[in-house]
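Q: Please design a sequence for this.
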């Protein structure tokens, strides 16, 4: 929350409103912010939050401050959330509601739904990066008068120029690398080789980095994904490549699978893996071929294909009987459930929730009512 600055809520030069949503509460990390429920606005340049009752209470944060974001499914008594991870606050940041925060991320809690469309539009804006189209000679003006007339470098060109200058100084002073670690790891212009050189130097503890700084930097590197991805250049092609890839996928996916109840859709796995691999992206074909080798290599994961054709990766220990019992128990408790309602209860995707219900139906434990209101499952009393 210490990344937010006070704002007048008005759109600035070259800025366009994308979407807004009422009933959104802010979280400073895992803690509720000391602010009421408000309206969140997404523009081409900023994320703006305004109190629904007191319109003078308005704060904003530039989209360029965002590292990455993810969805957090709704639970029993809990609203769906979008978790947004942020770069450190700049030293010359304007005043805001929080001076200091122990968290590097915020959460948007959607009390009146709308998170699906908001997440989609936020994804589009972060992909297009339309804020970078603002010329560097015409910076976006801020709400603080003292900032008027100050010209700042805006966009990827200015960032990359700065990074290139710092890259040349890395071998001389690793502390400089520490200061720019977040930016180095997020932009594709920085090569994987440079990323590995940073990791290597931190491992050897060269330079003037303290113990605490070393630990913190290591956590940054690990949070960004795989340090040494399996590639065709390093492991050849064909069966050997897919075997090594399967082993690395097994190590990487165990923790995320355990957090998601033991099963993930292959499309979700594809996005997760490629985000962790950075520039070394996997093709869908290579991912499928590697996943097919889980069982033959006796790894703790396996690829499963449901009757509908949906492909998932699941833990070998994941029990089909447990899935059926879970579906039956939840449907019995509620009387009836749709796939969407079941997904909210378990914190799973709607696709996987539907497959669980269909599996329980196939085994004779549930029956369906397919009407104009949608597909609903009931306990099979017959």
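A: Design:
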């Amino acid at each position: 929350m210490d990344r937010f600055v006070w704002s007048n809520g008005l759109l600035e030069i070259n800025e366009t409103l994308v979407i807004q949503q009422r009933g959104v509460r802010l979280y400073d990390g895992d803690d509720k912010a000391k602010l009421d429920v408000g309206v969140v606005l997404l523009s081409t340049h900023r994320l703006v939050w305004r109190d629904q009752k007191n319109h003078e209470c308005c704060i904003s944060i530039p989209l360029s401050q965002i590292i990455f974001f993810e969805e957090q499914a709704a639970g029993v008594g809990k609203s769906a959330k979008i978790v947004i991870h942020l770069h450190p606050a700049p030293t010359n940041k304007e005043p805001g509601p929080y001076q200091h925060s122990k968290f590097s991320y915020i959460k948007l809690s959607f009390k009146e739904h709308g998170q699906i469309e908001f997440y989609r539009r936020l994804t589009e804006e972060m992909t297009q990066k339309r804020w970078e189209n603002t010329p560097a000679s015409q910076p976006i003006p801020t709400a603080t008068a003292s900032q008027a007339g100050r010209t700042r470098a805006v966009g990827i060109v200015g960032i990359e120029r700065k990074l290139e200058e710092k890259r040349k100084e890395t071998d001389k002073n690793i502390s400089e690398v520490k200061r720019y670690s977040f930016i180095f790891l997020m932009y594709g212009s920085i090569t994987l080789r440079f990323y590995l050189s940073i990791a290597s130097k931190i491992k050897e503890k060269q330079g003037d980095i303290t113990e605490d700084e070393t630990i913190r930097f290591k956590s940054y590197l690990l949070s960004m994904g795989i340090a040494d991805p399996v590639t065709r250049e390093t492991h050849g092609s064909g069966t050997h490549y897919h075997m090594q890839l399967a082993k690395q996928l097994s190590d990487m996916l165990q923790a995320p699978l355990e957090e998601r109840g033991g099963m993930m859709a292959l499309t979700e796995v594809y996005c997760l893996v490629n985000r962790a691999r950075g520039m070394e992206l996997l093709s869908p074909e290579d991912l499928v071929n590697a996943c097919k080798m889980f069982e033959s290599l006796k790894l703790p994961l396996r690829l499963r294909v449901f009757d509908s054709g949906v492909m998932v990766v699941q833990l070998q220990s994941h029990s089909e009987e447990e899935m059926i019992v879970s579906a039956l128990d939840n449907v019995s408790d509620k009387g009836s459930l749709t796939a969407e309602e079941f997904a909210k209860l378990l914190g799973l995707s709607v696709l996987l929730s539907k497959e669980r219900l269909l599996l329980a139906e196939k085994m004779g434990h549930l029956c369906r009512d397919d009407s104009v209101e949608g597909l609903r499952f009931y306990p099979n009393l017959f």
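Q: Thanks. Anything notable?
A: The first strand starts at residue 5 and ends at 6. Residues 239-259 form the longest helix (21 residues).
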